[in-house]
Amino acid sequence: MSRTRTRTERRRTVVANRSQTTPVETSEIRALVRAAGDAVVADVTQSGPDDSGTYFGRGTVAELAETVAETDAQRVVVDDELDPGQHHALESAMPDGTTVLDRYRLVLELFEAGAGSRRAKLQVELARLRYELPRLIESADEGLLNEVTEKGSPVYDVRDRIDRLERKLDELPNPADQFRQRRREEGFDLVTIAGYTNAGKSTLLHRLADDMSLADSEPSAGTNVTDEPTDATGPSKDGTAAVGDRLFETLETTTRRATLAGRPVLATDTVGFVDDLPHDLIESFSSTLSEAGAADVVVLVVDASDPESRFRDRLDVSLEVLGTQGVDDDRIVTALNKVDRLSGAERTRRREIAAERLPSAATRPITVSVLEGTNLGTVRDAIVDRLPTERATLRLPNCDEAMALVSRAYDRTHVETVDYDGTDVTLVCRGRPAVVERLRRAAERLQ
Ligand SMILES: Nc1nc2c(ncn2[C@@H]2O[C@H](COP(=O)(O)OP(=O)(O)OP(=O)(O)O)[C@@H](O)[C@H]2O)c(=O)[nH]1
Ligand SMILES: [Mg+2]
């Protein structure tokens, strides 16, 4: 897969971007191209009006073709979504053999390379076909369009494959879902870590998790509930080990066990959001959003070292996207990360910007440096505060069955006190309401 390509084999790629404002930003698209295993050999940018036929103006198209020839590049990646006509016109204007990709197609390629499990592979194929279908219809001539209902026509075949993939995915049990369902019944709270790509989500998960990963304890848990994608042969996916910033390090959701205030928690890392991509693409592949919707608490990680306007936009978009999944602000712990890169004044400024969006004291964002371990205790406390909690006092006869129940309480809740007074045991614990209720009923049965 592309991530394992060695330096010498790297594809040479020119990135191209157009925007109304100057300077034209290419840092993110460069990072995406590098994540796909390519070397960025040049960038060509255009500010100002577009040409709808070729996306760029004529001068830029000529410059792009020249740059490709000079740098001996194999690919051009355009930082936007191209329509089929634009794609064709641009590719035709490039030296022979040059491939033109848009941002959407590049991300699909990244997902294809990262899909480890059978489920993920099917999901990414579905995402690609959904992307291709309208393009196929648009580029089809009339004769072809008349045949869309006929077996054997390209449009019919793609539709048919989409139908079949949707059905297959519906039927395919999701091991991660089943695993989580079981764990929830056993008293685990579910915490999802969400946010833009490169915000520091995986690094945070690593810091919050207990030493043992689920993969170590549950070998049969399924491909999604592991520390690494099953076919990970590339560089370490461990965010803490990464030297520079990388995008889309995490291409499958990963779940680990953590203990917060004595409560067992399952923390799930998710695929990052990225700007200018329909969220359904990422969703169809990674179920990032449904993970967030199903969680008790969502930790939203935002890169506070981004320039002010990007920071503000990303915070807004993240909260909005979570809102569409029914995750209200009071279920979210907002962590403003990478403050080690900021001066005191800049930190204050970021806090002020965030407070405009999240004014209530209960949802106040926390400035953190996951790398340096700053304020992680506050993040843990904030998560625990938001977990559904019930407190119970259980009185048990001092017998063997009662001891088994005490040990179950220790496993599944936070035990505040246990008092033995000869014939009785009194236990005070806090935990998930359903779990506490089950303990209470078990205690009653022992009376
Ligand atoms: N300076 C600084 N860098 C950090 C901090 N936290 C994470 N990073 C770096 O940011 C980069 C991205 O971190 P990840 O944890 O991989 O980010 P992610 O959100 O999981 O990214 P994706 O998986 O791509 O969505 C890595 O190089 C981390 O070392 C921090 O507190 N300060
Ligand atoms: Mg990650």
Structure, explained:
This protein has 447 residues and is an alpha/beta fold. It folds into 4 domains: 2-109, GTPase HflX, N-terminal domain (Rossmann fold, 3-Layer(aba) Sandwich); 115-171; 175-386, 3-Layer(aba) Sandwich (Rossmann fold); 390-446, Ribosomal protein S10 (Alpha-Beta Plaits). It has helices spanning 27-35, 58-71, 84-93, 103-114, 118-139, 142-146, 154-171, 175-185, 201-208, 214-217, 279-286, 288-294, 308-324, 344-357, 376-386, 400-412, 433-446, and strands at residues 12-19, 39-47, 75-78, 99-102, 189-195, 254-260, 263-269, 297-303, 332-337, 366-367, 390-397, 414-421, 424-431. Strands 6-7-5-8-9-10 form a 6-stranded mixed β-sheet, sandwiched between helices. Helix 5 (118-139) packs antiparallel against helix 11 (279-286). Mean pLDDT is 80; it is low at 1-7 and 212-247. The chain binds guanosine-5'-triphosphate and magnesium ion.
- Architecture (CATH level 2) name of the largest domain: 3-Layer(aba) Sandwich
Can you tell me the CATH class of the largest domain?
Alpha Beta
Reading side by side through the largest sheet, how are the strands ordered?
6-7-5-8-9-10
Shape: elongated
**pLDDT under 50 segments (min length 5)?**
1-7, 212-247
Give the name of the CATH superfamily of the largest domain. Answer: P-loop containing nucleotide triphosphate hydrolases
